[in-house]
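Lay summary

Proteins are chains of building blocks that fold into shapes. Our project writes down both the chain and a compact code for its shape. Here are two examples, one after the other.
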Amino acid sequence: MPETFWGRIVMLIEEYSTSFLRGAGVTMIIALVGTFIGCIIGFAVGIVQTIPVSKKDNIVKRVVLKVVRFILTAYVEVFRGTPMMAQAMFIYFGSAAVFNINMSMWFAAFFIVSINTGAYMAETVRGGILSIDPGQTEGAKAIGMNHVQTMLYVIMPQALRNIMPQIGNNLIINIKDTCVLSIIGTVELFYTTKGVAGAKYLYFESFAIAMVMYFILTFTCSRILRFWESRLDGPDNYDLATTDTLAHTSGMYNYSTEKKEEE
């Protein structure tokens, strides 16, 4: 056993580098898939929560939407108001005890992270949709678009750009929070690190390596997401398009000059 801290670090990397990398890979897969599915859930819930309802609508539509919104609101509040570790224990062991459903490690991990992320994304999407100027919706309806077309082609592209930072934040959070899944036996980076530390009784050195790996994963993802955000923002300045006949005419015509020439 090396006597120095760095010597022990090097020893652990040489002996368990494959295990650390495998654990990091599992962490990234769960975080990416869970965030992706969670975004889909969040978009669906957020869109349903913002469907406009008026007294002129059919009573059946109003009652159904009210019931659905109540269920979705309960889902959002419960999963935002409880820790993921408790959710993992409740879902994984509860489903086996009550419903006799034995989840696999991968399915349980994806399911737990996805529904947890979906609850947070639902509020993000709802806020993103409501942040769009109502004039955008009015303009879309004025040219004959229905609600689905308005959301798909007008509102959601703008809302997506506004909520991109929060999507990135959720991914970063999920990379770190996958460690709670070790409680149900998910062999991700934290679980792997505990095994290495217990085998060698080198907890400080093992978790120092794990912290560096977590930082590399989160920092890399945050840089990539910021680059993507900058691409979505587009250029800072826009030139007036003068290729169109109407735009060219309206931009170049000078009434006083034309009047003098006619005289």
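And here is the second example, written the same way.
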Amino acid sequence: MKKIAVIPARGGSKRIPHKNIINFMGKPLMAWTIEAAQKSNIFDRIIVSTDDVKFAEVAREYNCEVPFLRDINADDITPVSEATIHAVQQAEKYYNEEYDIVVQLMANAPIRNQFDIINHYNNFVQNDFDFQLSCFPFGWMNPWWSFKMNEEKQHEWIHPDAMKKRSQDLDKLYCPTGAIWIAKKELLLQAKTFYGPGYKFHEIDWKSAVDIDDYEDLDFAKAVFYLQSHQGENV
């Protein structure tokens, strides 16, 4: 089976300009994902899908292929799955080869590593899933006790019945993350989304699931990275 990893890295981020190449712990943000994919030793092909010439240059500095620039789906409205699908189709034409499995690795999840990728890939193959998405369990915050609040500070509970229960009696809840999405290529092309028929979730450690969209996320990711890199030390 031929496997391709696609790392989407759009250049037009608004909340953090040039987000995918900002410095994160000594390297451009996208470099962490590129190296994780390379170290996994899973893929026949790893490409970065970007519309930005500078991003392409950075990717190549880390020995990742950018055979073409993204010519469509480069806005902030189009679902990232569509950009990945188009990149796979472009790659098949460019390299004159066909892929069986597509793995999408978001460039803004720098703490997800090669072991996470290997774990998710093995689970996907062993269970013969068609679509698999990463997720993580909610931690110290309890989504069962969430509420909306309007400008007048009036609140509305999202799960009012849950307020009658102790936290330990509530079901464990999970959140999707874009860290690692996997699909069989032909089915992905048909569904046009990784949320295709019968999609499954596979759990990832919450630290590996951290992604960066704004500066608060960036500060949080740096703190998590620091703590994880100093595990076992008195920090």
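What can we say about the second shape? The first strand starts at residue 3 and ends at 8.
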